[in-house]
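Researcher: Here's a chain I'd like modeled. Treat it as a single chain, no partners, no ligands.
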Amino acid sequence: MSIRAIADAVGVTPPSIYLHFADKDELIVEVCREQFRMLDQHLQAATADIEDPIEAMRACGRAYVEFGLSNAEGYRVLFMGRWDHGDKGEIAGPGEVELAAFVHLVENVERGIQQGRIAAGDPHLIALGLWSTAHGITSLLISHPGFPWPPDQSAMIDCVVTQAVEGVLA
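Model: Modeled as a single isolated chain. Structure tokens:
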């Protein structure tokens, strides 16, 4: 991906991109931040009216997979590749925007633990397990479209998410 290709895609000249971003790395970081914002908004919309933390976790898992499948290239950039930071060293760790969706999942797990519906444990580790399941099925569906998936992928996604959620119940 070059600045010229990006400029062509958005209909501007390459120098105009540098009016907004110092370099390509800064542009990519901002694109990723926007993808993380979109992910969190999608998950929040999917769970907005759900009071039950268990049902919210199921809805969140389904919405996560939906987001990844409907936004496969953005998802690949966020979660399925390794961005080479070159000689700039590591960028700062994830910030509030990048972590928002995960923080909301941890909060949901905490509610479930407080209600006695999720087995006692470290909410962060439980949330990591749930996220790993949603990420795993999303990544597999994106990266292996030729695999003999069941004809009803929606039912398969529900089954996988339900298995993960039921695995953490009290």
